Amino acid sequence: MPGDLAGLEALILPGGESTTISKGLARHDLVKPIQEFAEAGGALLGTCAGAIVLSRASRNHPVPTLGLLDVESERNAYGTQLDSFVASVDPGGSEAWAGLECVFIRAPRFLDPGPGVEVLARVDGAPVLIRQGRRWACTFHPELTDDLRVHEALLDRLE
Question: Which of 43, 63, 95, 107 gives 20 to 30 Å between its CA and that of 50?
Answer without folding.
Answer: 95
